[in-house]
Structures are given as C-alpha cells and as structure tokens.
Amino acid sequence: MPENTPPGGGGPDRTEDGRYVIIKGRRWRATDPTVPEEAAAALRSHLMAARRAVREAKRATDDAALRRARDRVQRAKVALGERGDPWWEQSGRERERRWRDGLAWFDGPGER
C-alpha cells in the first residue's frame, strides 16, 4: 500500500492519492480536503463530543443514549467526508452541501 507524508510533515501518513490516512497500519478515509478549516474544526468538535457521549452512554448502559450518540458520530463523519459516498466521487456542489447540511444539523434543532 503506497504511503507518503503530508506536506509540512505533520499528521498521519497518507496514501499517494490522498484519499486515505494510515494509522497504526490501518487505512481510514481522509477528511474531504475541500471542507473549509473553520467548518472542519466545528465538525471535529461535534465528532469528539459525540464520541464522549458514546463513552458515557456505554458506562451508564443506556441503550437509547448510545444509539443517539452513535448517530451523531455517523453524521459528523459523513459531513467530514469520512463516511458515506466517497468525496472524490462527488461534485463540488455535492461536497459543499454535505458538510453544510452536517453543520446545519448540529447547529440547528437536529442536535437537541
């Protein structure tokens, strides 16, 4: 599996096409590079909060809360382009709509 180091030397190794990151020998889909940094940071914040909610729901053995938290993780990952339709197969308009819809859901009534 081809690997390279991203520009600037920071972050995990990536495949040559930039579509995947390599972490501990496993290949994971990379965040869509067209997501503006401010939006990506907000989505990562929502993702981390959702992951904490998963951990808390597991501790509390609350199945309903666990399902909601996992749904939030999924929404954040899709909005970042890390799940769902591959971002490199989407048009620019589809890619923008994906992350904007994700932010709108988290920042709107969907998150409550």
Helix content: 40-55%
Low-confidence stretches: 1-7
> How many helices does DSSP assign?
3
β-strand number: 3
**Biggest sheet details:** 3 strands, antiparallel
Radius of gyration: 15 Å
Which outline best applies? Answer: globular
What does the average pLDDT come to? 91
Please report which band the strand proportion falls in: under 5%, 5-15%, 15-25%, 25-35%, 35-45% or over 45%: 5-15%
Verbal overview:
This protein has 112 residues and is mainly α. Helices cover 52% and strands 9% of the residues. The chain has helices at 37-60, 63-80, 92-107, and strands spanning 13-14, 20-23, 26-29. The protein has a three-stranded antiparallel β-sheet, with no helix packed on it. Strand 2 (20-23) and strand 3 (26-29) form a beta hairpin. The longest helix has 24 residues, at 37-60.
Quick summary:
The chain is mainly alpha-helical and 112 residues long.
Keywords:
112 residues, 3 strands, 3 helices, 52% helix, three-stranded antiparallel sheet, mainly alpha, single chain
Structural topology:
Blueprint: E1 13-14, E2 20-23, E3 26-29, H1 37-60, H2 63-80, H3 92-107
Antiparallel strand pairs: 1-2, 2-3
